[in-house]
Amino acid sequence: HQLKQKGRTSTSLYASVEQRLEVISKAWQNLRVTEQHLTLLNEIPPSFRVLTLQHSPDRTHLYCAAY
Question: What GO biological process term is on the record, naming one (predicted)?
Fold first, then answer.
């Protein structure tokens, strides 16, 4: 987190940590957004409705997406 805040994500330390997290952490794997993230919507049955709510960082706005 500190490396990312300082804009040092291109360092070998950052790459090493990211690779290690990818191997050992299921939570880290689930955080990654892949190129196929939109195809996940195709796997949802038509009878399901999805509503996503997210606050802005300063919590002054609430964003919503419906599918």
Answer: cilium movement involved in cell motility
